[in-house]
Amino acid sequence: MVNYYVKGGSDYLNANCKLYFYLDLSGYPEGDYETRDDSHIQDEDPYIHLSGVAGGAKTVVIGLSGDYRIEIDDTNGIRGWDEVNSQWVNLLTGDLNDLGDVNAGAPNDNDVLAWDDGTSKWIPVPAVVGGETNTASNVGTDGLGVFKQKAGVDLEFKHIAPASAKITVVANGDDIDIDAVPSEIYTNAEAVSAVATADDYIKNDAPDTLGGDLSTDVHDIILSADEASISLHDGLSADNKWSGIIATMQVDVNTQGFGGLLHMDTDGNFIDADANVEASLPCTGMALGTTGAIKVMFHGFVRDDAWNWTPGQLLFVSATAGDITATKPTTTGHFVQCVGFAVSADVMFFNPQYEYFELS
């Protein structure tokens, strides 16, 4: 028995713990050694077991009782105890089949071990050369795809780059923002050239629909070709619809609401036009709303389902404030001003004549 300091293990934290040596001299002539019978020596942790046969194999076992052990033997070499499968495993031959949970068989070059749930063993499978077998692809047929190729384990993608200063490509968190730079899209000369040579949404032989208001800034719209025109729409689809030349103006007094006849007062705001009050003449506009800053028609088609005209009738300023009449005024002292003509029972073309005369 030897007093020794051993570090590690469940019972080895204390200094001067017992370390047992077990010497097996069976086969040696008696008298050459002194025998101590202690059959439980291998139940102690840790232990060293030396054994052998005279003139034969010699063995040293170092290990933990009922647990992991290493055997050094001049016949079997160095072996480790496989506690799970209760067998010795040769540590020098390199034969994986000696391990209880390995079924390596006769592996081929570049095989690797993979776990097989079916047999609960490690088995050889071919190694994947050049990375995983997965790859990537571009979806759809329009435009260009960003995936280039797979090189080994690396999936390579193309860069998204602007072709000119007209486009910006900016990383924005998880997004890539692609924007146009309006100031770089066209110079004045390029814009003129593009419109002159291309059939775009501005210059097109077929009718087009604008998605919003068309602003010319400080420039003009010039009709420079034969039979060029500004066409108004006379087939108004519903009540209180219109098509014509308008402006947003301030209206202070409007008795009739939509379709009311208006006169511009001395303060520059509109009030009712009235055939029996010269100060409220001439009629110069028609209300397309009520009061305040509203749209005012100066020339064009207007529909009001409350009207009941006879097509072709001339229409006049009425002696009722803001109203329209198909009967020319005849009362002395009243004024006559024509403001347009009837197109249908509920549509008129508003085209006020600024000259008027007084009945006497």
Describe this structure in words.
The model is unreliable at 1-21 and 32-42 (pLDDT under 50). The chain has 3 domains: 2-93, no CATH class; 158-213, no CATH class; 242-358. The radius of gyration is 53 Å and the shape is rod-shaped. The longest helix has 10 residues, at 188-197. Strands 14, 15, 16, 17, 18, 19, 20, 22 and 23 form a 9-stranded antiparallel sheet that branches. The chain has a 7-stranded mixed sheet with strand order 1-2-3-4-5-6-7, with no helix packed on it. The protein has a two-stranded antiparallel ribbon with strand order 8-9. The protein is mostly beta strands and 360 residues long. The protein has helices at 182-185, 188-197; strands spanning 2-4, 17-24, 47-52, 58-63, 69-73, 77-82, 87-90, 111-116, 121-126, 147-151, 154-157, 167-172, 175-180, 242-251, 261-264, 270-272, 285-287, 292-303, 314-317, 324-325, 335-336, 338-342, 347-350, 357-358.
Summarize the structure in short:
The protein is mainly β and 360 residues long. It has two helices and 24 strands.
Compile the SSE list and pairings.
Elements: E1 2-4, E2 17-24, E3 47-52, E4 58-63, E5 69-73, E6 77-82, E7 87-90, E8 111-116, E9 121-126, E10 147-151, E11 154-157, E12 167-172, E13 175-180, H1 182-185, H2 188-197, E14 242-251, E15 261-264, E16 270-272, E17 285-287, E18 292-303, E19 314-317, E20 324-325, E21 335-336, E22 338-342, E23 347-350, E24 357-358
Parallel strand pairs: 2-3
Antiparallel strand pairs: 1-2, 3-4, 4-5, 5-6, 6-7, 8-9, 10-11, 12-13, 14-18, 15-16, 15-17, 17-18, 18-23, 19-20, 19-22, 21-24, 22-23
